[in-house]
Write a structure and sequence with these properties.
Spore Coat Polysaccharide Biosynthesis Protein SpsA, Chain A
């Protein structure tokens, strides 16, 4: 009995060691990509004249610093552009925020659409379908409500379209926390896991990825892929759209420009976000998701140290992973020009939470977005729970 138990413990230790060592190679690769990354304006579009753009801003409830976020899209150093804010609920608390902004920019083409129609399971897509009816221009840019941009944002969104082979543009986003532990952990997830993982993917080619931070395309391209209706049952509608655009033979570009999101300090929202993220990725790419466990090597290095009969080897693996992980932490902060903080001690907690979310993603198909719960089916098709 004791011998069999020791055998099992030894096997678990070996698995943890393998994941930790493989993960150290991943963290090193991610570190190299972050060190090479230079987020800066792409110089703006060289087109003369610049194409007119409609920015679609679907809203639902209040995000941290919502006023500052939304206002930044109305103050662009760009020629002809329209901003359309949209909500479904006439009592949505975001409406007074938008009305304040409308009063500040009376001479700009900014409007609010309040339309309760729900023509898609994905409520964001349903909102976009309603807003699209008010869009005036041939180029569309969608950006989530929790994003904040600089005045040169639109010029950098349009710049990649100078290449006729580009069908869509999406953008990386970095996170800044408000006060609080949950906010800091969520910002670390975005900055130290999401951004490095995307940079690694980009280093291997042209993945069909799209992010809610920004997804821009021509209206004619949207029509060619079936419109918003074609992705109305998808949880990750941004990725679903970019996949369809890539099938047209067009590229999806990720320019070296980073927009910003402000993370809320809500522990429940943090876990809901983790579950929605992991379960969506698992539904979209099951094989790749299994392999993604190596992106969290620190928890497995610590487990190996606890289970290994050779403490020196275990301590060496932990030291290797921890050094690389700390270097990645500082490299990201430098690349994103984030102020120095005392978040270094949160690295083990952040990585253990990510590993726990990875494991928990296999025990259920439900995710939560705002106040609604959805069930993921094949791919990332979803149904609203209770229907």
């Amino acid at each position: 009995m004791i011998a069999s138990t020791l055998t099992v413990v030894g096997s678990i230790a070996d698995i943890c060691a393998a994941i930790a060592v493989a993960g150290s190679f991943y963290v090193f690769l991610a570190l190299m990509q972050v060190l090479r990354f230079r987020p800066q304006p792409a110089g703006g579009s060289s087109r003369e004249p610049q194409p007119a753009v409609t920015i679609l801003k679907p809203l639902c409830g209040l995000d941290p610093q919502l006023y500052e976020n939304l206002r930044s899209f109305c103050d662009q150093d760009y020629g002809d552009y329209q901003v359309v804010f949209g909500v479904r609920d006439p009592a949505d608390p975001a409406i007074p925020v938008v009305q304040r902004i409308l009063g500040e920019f009376p001479h700009k083409d900014v409007e609010l659409v309040v339309d309760p129609r729900v023509r898609a399971v994905n409520f964001k897509v349903a909102n976009l379908m309603n807003m699209l009816e008010r869009a005036k221009h041939a180029v569309l840019a969608i950006a989530d409500s929790d994003m904040r941009v600089r005045a040169d944002y639109l010029r950098n969104v349009i710049a990649p379209f100078d290449d006729e082979g580009v069908g869509a543009v999406t953008m990386l986003f970095g996170a800044r926390p408000v006060a609080g532990l949950a906010s800091r952990l969520r910002a670390m997830l975005t900055n130290e896991h999401f951004i490095p993982s995307v940079l690694v993917k980009l280093s291997f080619g042209k993945p069909d990825i799209g992010f809610g931070s920004t997804l821009a395309f021509a209206r004619s391209t949207l029509e060619r892929v079936g419109g918003f209706e074609a992705v109305g049952s998808r949880l990750a509608e941004d990725t679903a759209l970019t996949k369809r655009i890539r099938r047209l033979g067009l590229d999806v570009r990720v320019p070296p420009y980073v927009v910003q999101t402000i993370e809320s300090d809500d522990a429940r929202a943090l876990w809901d976000h983790e579950m929605r993220w992991t379960r969506t990725i698992r539904a979209l790419a099951p094989a790749g998701f299994l392999g993604s466990i190596v992106t969290y090597p620190l928890p497995f290095a610590l487990l190996f140290l606890a289970l290994s009969h050779d403490r020196w080897v275990g301590a060496g693996v932990v030291a290797l992973v921890l050094v690389l992980r700390v270097m990645l932490h500082y490299a990201v902060r430098r690349a994103l020009q984030l102020e120095h903080s005392d978040d270094l001690w949160l690295i083990p907690l952040r990585d253990c939470l990510s590993a726990a979310a990875w494991v928990a993603s296999f025990f259920g198909q439900d995710v939560r977005w705002r106040d609604h719960e959805f069930r993921i089916h094949s791919g990332d098709d979803v149904t609203l729970r209770g229907r």
